[in-house]
């Protein structure tokens, strides 16, 4: 191939979206496909992949490991829960942890993951580290899936300005053959299967060069190992935790309780409000009642339909309004949160004023008038 | 400093023109609302992409504000080099602390001392903490340039920080300006780095400045460092403050959640640099904008739905689900939906649904919802102009006006937010303990060579003597401690009681009884006040706005003294229509009262007394007075009302005293649409006020005091440089030989400072009349605090007075005393209020016009307190 032709290409090649985004998207698609619960990103650097993954609703544990603590520290706050996460705790639980350590060392905190990603990691490893890497990831961590991406040096001639390696910190860059033989050997050794793909398509006519970034997806062939096997492994902690964030979740009783109480009282208030305004209208202006009723009844729709059974009807007695818990429980949102009526009663116990037999929420309407 | 702007390094540009003296004020240029047309909406920006999440740029958020040096008058701190590099950023960012506005230096008589002397001493503590730095501490400011030029800030940072062994681990860098706690060996340091692409880059780090601890740049720098500390303590930033999300108080009755947090600012005070920190409560709502829309829809129905949404939602601040940003809702685009598209920064089109799915994995469930529009005031990253938000993904924060007027809700909230002095001080102390105990925070502080005094500052204030209240020759014997003379005024005739000979009483049929009870009560209470009251013209109307208006058109005569309307609901449109008609087309004072207020037999006499007093004031009566020792003085009050709902109008209320006893007030207001300057209108107001004063007093006032309220954080500069000269201009225009003494005082109710009186080992609110003019005031200002009011629960908030212009030659003590006296003169409250009466009158007027009338009221009413 003549040199001029190549140079022409070097000006043309520009990936859209940028290559790093394509790599992240690749991981995200994989997560969507396999729905792992626990995901670890080795060499997480500025945490940008983790930041993207925290929005994936299947993930409950997210961990990052990097050899440089500073780069993680600089960006770790972006992994903290947002105000809204506290306001509307989600159904799933999520814990994000960042560890400072090397992928050449085993640490028990890395056990039990479903997916381990090593995006543009291995080319930064020294030879000695690279030697230990397969044993740590495939032998020790042994997740069901491992994703490894690395630059494809076959593609380098097509990139402008790349002399030796794409980044000064790269210790090596493999061509397709080198990567694949390493990957196949590793897979064989630890009983994984591997498939090769990549992101960053070569320009037409240059297909031989392969993807700009080559990716190997390793899938463990043997089933999940039991706890017993893992406990035999060395368990001394060598990683240092630099960041940990536990997201508020409805799985946590504290947040569930708050959510349920809030929903119960709010629902009860709406029902009470409806009841009272109906009464007031009736008292003040009997002839107008019919005219106003339709608009009142559609607030909110489902409540209107629900209050049918006599036993579930809210009522006023003296200065108090009684709203049966059964009515409140029939509201979809409350129902979804609690699951069972017993759970509802348990969660609101002591926090919501109930009637003496515990069957209804009670409001005193005296207070309202001042 | 909201800390959101992203700084972008630029090399200093030698050629840029220096700022002309007195050039455009550094205020935001109002953007005209763009017509909402579909093609324009195509260009809306979606909220910033993931990579721009706050905190993502781990280094100095809001660093730009540090760099934005004001043009100091007399405070020459920064080198020319820095000034140059900053000029082209323009005045987008506001300086919330009004640093660099030095008004005291122009007032010779307060150069030496600005403190008063009268009253008894009182021991006070405050919520200020001294910031200490080691001796000879300085902050070193470097300029960093790259050759070849690097554009991206990230790259610039990364390249520079490859040399941490040279510059140290402690640094603050915004892409072009680097702050270090230590001095580098050489004035100019050259470093060499290599980019990812293998390009060699020469970095030149040049020392541009050694900043002493008190320089304004340093002060802003402290504030940024302090924000870093708060973030390290895992507090969440919402708006300007930081909150602790882990222990929220939830108020399920109203679906509210309250987060406890802290406000903080570090400033140069009289003798020390201090941190002023106060407890702040953030009210958050557990519902999204879409939830609110649903419930509004079911409440008001299809017909009024859109209007109601606009009324309820526009102006609110929302928090987005996917990042830590807050936006103000400026408009609702009903023609758009999540299916609509926007243009991404790379030029491609994408629908909102797609965007949120792709970027945040969020499924938008309701595809029919409208889209919220937020006009960005500042450029945020590469995003400018309107931003589209999806209601479903926005959480509401704060309270709406409707919620504020909900008595029960506010009562439930107050339990959690009104902390008594001891508890408040304890919460504040807790923040300081966190800072003291946290290793990382301490390390950061140590690295910068900074530290705090973890004990609050205490000092002595003064409690000036109580003012005597006079009513028709009687001196009321009230207890100044309670700041209230409601009981003492009973049975004492008013200074000037206006007879009510001809008046209308309008009510609906169901309020017939209420109207009668009211009438009986009024007849019972008015004689002792000296008010002669005839039988009214009783008119029954249908409960419709048009019915009220028709009655007014038919029955009001030129002889009518006042119109009294009993309203059956707090529906605003009826009230607005009545007020509008009676303030503009047919200028007659009016009194509207809710039937509910009159329905309780046990309170009817108190209510009737208050109503009688109010009616009397509205017709030009006078209630009580205090001693005003100054002669020929005119007192002016100005306040502004900003229409947040339509966002189109601002109203300035202007009142000026008419007589020696300052019991009568002239009023006017300026209705000003977006983009117009307020000052021109105020000039005209002052002119008419002077004309009226001279009509009443047969001469012109020799002294004028202007109490100016409604000056926002960061607007002081504008006020000093534009408004005050306009006042002077106006006075000059009256006549060449006329040169009265003018004093302009900026009144600020929302201040961070809190004072606590040490009392028997505990902390109490300071008594009314407490004046503070040392330690926590600012050296460059002639300013003081007065606590004039009392509060039943919670902490009393002092009012800050900043005398920005003064040719009165009066002693500070006299200015303080006059100010305190004026706090006694608000006729709608028989007690002392937070601000001087003219400010409160101006506020009332601006509020009435802004809320109900929307244009300047008829001048026929201008000598009466019709707006009470």
From TrEMBL, chain A:
A molecular-function term among this protein's GO annotations: metal ion binding
Highest taxon of source: Eukaryota
GO cellular component, one term: cytoplasm
Keywords, comma-separated and alphabetical: Magnesium, Metal-binding, Methyltransferase, RNA-binding, RNA-mediated gene silencing, S-adenosyl-L-methionine, Transferase
Catalytic activity: small RNA 3'-end nucleotide + S-adenosyl-L-methionine = small RNA 3'-end 2'-O-methylnucleotide + S-adenosyl-L-homocysteine + H(+)
GO biological process, one term: siRNA processing
Entry keyword annotation includes S-adenosyl-L-methionine: yes
Cofactor(s) in the UniProt record: Mg(2+)
Top-level EC class as recorded in UniProt: transferase
EC number(s) recorded for this UniProt protein: 2.1.1.386
Family from the record: Belongs to the methyltransferase superfamily. HEN1 family.
The protein's name: Small RNA 2'-O-methyltransferase
UniProtKB/TrEMBL annotation, chain B:
One GO MF term attached to the UniProt entry: piRNA binding
Gene Ontology annotations of biological process type: germ cell development; meiotic cell cycle; regulation of translation; regulatory ncRNA-mediated gene silencing
Low complexity: bias regions: 36-45
Requisite cofactors: Mg(2+)
Recorded GO CC terms: cytoplasm
Alphabetical UniProt keywords: Cytoplasm, Developmental protein, Differentiation, Endonuclease, Hydrolase, Magnesium, Meiosis, Metal-binding, Methylation, Nuclease, RNA-binding, RNA-mediated gene silencing, Translation regulation
UniProt-annotated stretches for the region Disordered: 1-91
InterPro entries listed in its UniProt record: ArgoL1, PAZ_dom, PAZ_dom_sf, Piwi, RNaseH-like_sf, RNaseH_sf
Matching CDD domains: PAZ_piwi_like, Piwi_piwi-like_Euk
UniProt subcellular location: Cytoplasm
Domain PAZ, residue spans: 288-398
A Pfam family: PAZ
SMART domains assigned: PAZ, Piwi
Family per similarity comment: Belongs to the argonaute family. Piwi subfamily.
Protein name: Piwi-like protein 1
Origin species: Daphoenositta chrysoptera (varied sittella)
Taxon lineage: Eukaryota, Metazoa, Chordata, Craniata, Vertebrata
The gene coding this protein: Piwil1
